[in-house]
Amino acid sequence: MAPNKTTSIDQLLIVLELYHRIPFGRKVTAGQLHQQLAEVGIHRDIRTVQRNLELVVKFLDVEKDTRDKPYGYSKRLGTRLTLGPREAILLETALSGLKAAFPTAYHPVIEGAFAPFSRRNSPTAKVDIRPCRPLIEESKMALFERLCFALHYQREIKLQLSPHTLPYCWPLGLRCEQEQFYLIYEYQHTRYAIPLNDIKEVSVSTFEFTYPSHAMSDIHLDSLAPFPSLPTLSYSSGI
């Protein structure tokens, strides 16, 4: 009998999500990955996570450290990309800017994302960006994880905005403006924005949506109107 298509796609999604969450240069356990999946609304038992981790180790560039329990998983560093002077400073600017925008607890994730790029010729950072405060509150990081999942896989979401609960809408992207992050979303063919720190909760559905053709750059925060008691965004339709 041919495998169930939905089940196969679901397993592939879990394998890819696990792979994306395994860092370079440091180890993460199955229990930690299990918790991270739960935080973005992917609820599987620990045995399912462990079984899919075996697939990740078998087919992808991931190592399993079996010297001590709980076992640790990390991506192989392999060959790093070597950058020229201009690219190296741009990389440092991006890294410093991201670390400044997010709470300290999120810095290891950011460092892991930049690990494949060689900093051999410049082990000390040459760029230091310091805003007055992180752009996202530390208490909102689990919510941010769920939004990342929904944005990446184009899943509908439900937003809890005290005192409102907005039915399923389309998350379109994040805008950094006015010293904070805004979620830009579409609801009933109209686009809106809300500061991430004002969102109480996010639920990610299993329903995918087709991303609209209008670019994020067409949306302007300076054209606001209420709906329903929430800030709205207008966008240029010149496409």
How many E-type strands? 10
Radius of gyration: 20 Å
Task: Please tell me what the overall shape is.
Answer: globular
Structural class by secondary-structure content: alpha+beta
What percent of residues adopt helix (DSSP H or I)?
A: 25-40%
Largest sheet: 5 strands, antiparallel
Overall pLDDT, averaged?
A: 79
Sequence of strands across the biggest β-sheet? 7-6-5-4-8
**How far do the termini sit from each other?**
48 Å
Organism: bacterium 19MO03SA05
Protein name: WYL domain-containing protein
Protein architecture, described:
The chain is of the alpha+beta class and 239 residues long. It folds into three domains: 71 residues, Orthogonal Bundle (Arc Repressor Mutant, subunit A), CATH 1.10.10.10; 56 residues, no CATH class; 98 residues. It is 33% helix and 24% strand. A five-stranded antiparallel sheet has the order 7-6-5-4-8, covered by helices on one side. Helix 1 crosses helix 3 and helix 4 runs antiparallel to helix 5. The termini are far apart.
Short overview:
The chain contains six helices and ten strands. By secondary structure, the chain is α+β, with helices and mostly antiparallel strands. It comes from bacterium 19MO03SA05.
